[in-house]
Amino acid sequence: MGLIELLDYACAVLQEAGYPNPWAWSPRVIIHRLDVHNRITAQRRLIDMHVSLLAARGDQKHVERFAEAQKRIAEPEKATPTDTRAVSAEIKPASRRQVEEMQAALAAAGWSM
Question: pTM for the whole thing?
Answer without folding.
Answer: 0.50
